[in-house]
Amino acid sequence: MSDQDEKTVLIVDDEEMVAESYELYLQDDYNTIVELSGGGALMELDQREVDLVLVDRRMPGMSGDVVIEHIDKWEMDFQVIMVTAVDPDIDIVDMPVDGYLTKPVSEDELVEAVERAIAIKHYEDLIAEYNQLAEKYEVLTAEFSSRELANQNRFADLESQMDEMEAEIAETVENFSDSKLSDAFSRLH
Amino acid sequence: MGKTDLSLFVGQAEMGSHVDSAVGQQTVVTFETTAAGIAYLDSDEPKPGSVVTDHDPPDRDCFELLEAVPTAVPVVVAPTRGSSELATRACRAGAAGYVDLAVVENDAEVIAAEIARARKQHAAADERIDQFASLVSHELRSPIQTARSGIDLANAQCDSKYLDEVGETLDQMESLIDNLLDRLQQEEPRIELTPVDLSAVVESAWSDEPGARLSVESELPTIAAEESRVRQLFENLFRNSIQHGPPSSATDSEPITVRVGVLESETEGTIGLYIADNGQGIDPDHRTKVFEYGYTRSEHGSGFGLAIVKEVADAFGWDVELTESRSGGVRFEFRQIYLT
Fold first, then answer.
1. Strand duo B212-216 + A52-55: pairing
2. Cβ-count burial of B252 within 10 angstroms (0-12 exposed, 13-18 middle, 19+ buried)?
3. Nearest residue, CB atoms, B146 vs list A15, A24, A105
């Protein structure tokens, strides 16, 4: 992904060594911030923009569950991955997270999960942007005849922008490394 | 887990009918013989949440039934002619409850109450196991993550072969925890078959110990298995050979040699493997016991190694046989190993 190096990942884990290792795995491709408590993480989120949060579940003081509840309540627009030694149970269905990794995680597992979540966010942003263009296209084609629109450079720009975005969306879906995810998107399209 | 509102009753049809009336909202399916009851359990019919059985061999044998019923389903033994000896044997064989119908009034009501009690007790035990599994999972996996993180951070600062070895030990611990949790939750090990290059796995499973030598005597194929479990199997077998060393009669300079090779198979698409050593061997009387959990021949052994070997082999459907090698050591033979 071309702008991957601009993405910021907030790492939240009360075990300093664990948090630092995640930072080590990710620091070549992402900006990283480390917080060792749930409260510290929320203060950080209040002040800085992040693209993804990696959060431990069981932490002294504010637990990961409470952190993600706040993130959900504040309607913050980024991906959240829970990284925990707690085995997943059926309750994760209601949990506002985009990924769930069970410790111990390897470097490859963590990096892959982060890449996938960032790619999904990118896909969601593209779809939202494309829908805006498609909405305008629909309004204009309902209002004017195709001959009238053919002479409008701005309309030609809109069409070309939509073509480019369709190609980018298709490319994003194809690039999902996870074949299950790729298959799921193919079924949706 | 069984269907909780259904009970299987093995005994006289009239008593089955009375129990059916006594259990209220639940349903009782009745069979007159143990064989018919077992046939029902093996069929695609809904599985019961509890089983009640008379004991009047040969038609009704509670022990045969106790063996056939999954451990997750409580069994109440309710003989028409009981004895204290039968009660003891039934409880030892895993019965969750015992009712001697010769000494109680309102037989059906007593059986219905015993079914309710056994189910409640079983559910509480399941809950305790779940809680313990959750605790084990978190309390053991968290330190492994911390240790693994420490290794990765240290590796970024310096280069040491010892860090890799500690990492491999952590892999083994993680694998043992997974096995322990599978056993606690009585789940079959989850197997995902992928192509596994046996040659590479054998090489990686062997650790260069002083006084130990690996000899691969044939070209090893690629098989359909799960790499981590196959590696674990070889690591345990190699560790077993090295731990028990050469026979006491051998000279100090004689190394323990572990030989690995392919056995021809009569079944198309499969192969066999042997792993043999020149160690102390295992007495024929103990050859089945070594696969039991907790059995060890060594003061420092855990009694897990070969039990896990057997469990891995069973999970893949491999036949395993323990014999004597040509030099008097142990020889493990695995068959029915599927090629890719």
1. unpaired
2. exposed
3. A15
| Of B169, B180, B168, nearest in space to B139 by CA | B180
Contact between B209 and B235 (Cβ < 8 Å)? no
- Is the separation of the CB atoms in B32 and B12 below 8 Å? yes
Q: How far apart are the first and last CA of chain A?
A: 22
ipTM: 0.76
User: How far is residue B226 CA from its own chain's centroid?
Assistant: 17
* Interchain contact, B170 vs A104, CB within 8 Å: yes
Cβ contact, residue pair A103, B141, below 8 Å:
yes
Q: How far is CA A83 from CA A65, B156, B173, B275, in A?
A: 11, 22, 20, 40
Distance CA B243, CA B282 (A): 13
Looking at residue B166, the DSSP 8-state letter turns out to be H
Rounded to 10 deg, the angle between the A179-188 and A107-143 helix axes is 10
Residue in B with minimal Cα distance to A25: B152
Query: How many of the other CB atoms lie within 10 Å of CB of B84?
Result: 9
Residues 6+ apart with CB under 8 A from A50: A8, A9, A10, A33, A44, A78
Q: Which residue out of B130, B132, B149 would a mutagenesis test of the A interface target, given it has the greatest number of A Cβ atoms within 10 Å? A: B149
Please tell me which residue, B197 or A179, carries the higher pLDDT value. B197
CA atoms within 13 A on the CB side of B4: 6
Q: Model pTM?
A: 0.58
- State the sign of the Cα–Cα–Cα–Cα dihedral B237, B239, B244, B250: positive
Q: What is the DSSP string of A24-74?
A: HHHTTTSEEEEESSHHHHHHHHHHS--SEEEE-SS-SSS-HHHHHHHHHHT
Q: What is the pLDDT of residues B89-137, one digit of tens each?
A: 998 888 999 999 988 888 999 999 999 998 888 888 888 888 888 787 7
